[in-house]
């Protein structure tokens, strides 16, 4: 189980990553990896170096309760150091478990596009990319052409205002940065994305303010909460039938 509000479980057949954009600067997964390594967890013995873990590939087969699963919350499945053959093995498990929904989020949207654009994507897969500031909006173009159940954006940590073309996008998640070095998120950025979602008929999910509240004050992220103008807004995307209507 996980504390990530937009999913139910995490599955990490790959761990470790490397920084490619400003949103990576204070990576939560890198910080968490250091803690887990310090606790002696063998899976994280190599620190934040990219590592594939064949021994956990079959974990979802053991989870009988249908679940929404965030794939590689501690890495990026489409990191250049993850062999395509290993991605194939991850997808094989996904094909074998149609009772689950798998959310794959990447900052490497081009490689994701190159992998999926000429093959059938399982009906229980949601594909997403991170867009933390305007300079990364190009990632959306690689995502929108993929034929999957749900296409989503994670604007977390949100580091600036965005001007989004949400054609073929089903869901947008927004959240502020957490941790001692967190950067503030301005309320006007969040409100503007919410408005863009409303105008383009896209589900909007506000996860949290993070370390800085809407008043710009630094405090515990739980104290800052997750209300936007006094309201909790955590919409989920509408589902469509795909690939024979596999159960989601």
Description:
The protein has 248 residues and is an alpha/beta fold. The chain has helices spanning 28-38, 59-62, 84-96, 109-116, 139-144, 187-199, 221-224, and strands spanning 9-11, 14-15, 51-52, 68-71, 101-106, 125-130, 150-155, 171-175, 203-208.
Helix/strand layout:
Elements: E1 9-11, E2 14-15, H1 28-38, E3 51-52, H2 59-62, E4 68-71, H3 84-96, E5 101-106, H4 109-116, E6 125-130, H5 139-144, E7 150-155, E8 171-175, H6 187-199, E9 203-208, H7 221-224
Parallel strand pairs: 1-4, 4-5, 5-6, 6-7, 7-8, 8-9
Antiparallel strand pairs: 2-3
Low-pLDDT segments, ≥5 res: 243-248
The shape, in one word, is globular
List how many beta strands DSSP finds.
Answer: 9
Task: Give the N-to-C terminal Cα separation.
Answer: 18 Å
Number of helices: 7
**Biggest beta sheet summary:** 7 strands, parallel
Output the strand order for the largest sheet: 1-4-5-6-7-8-9
The overall pLDDT average reads: 95
* Percent helix range: 10-25%
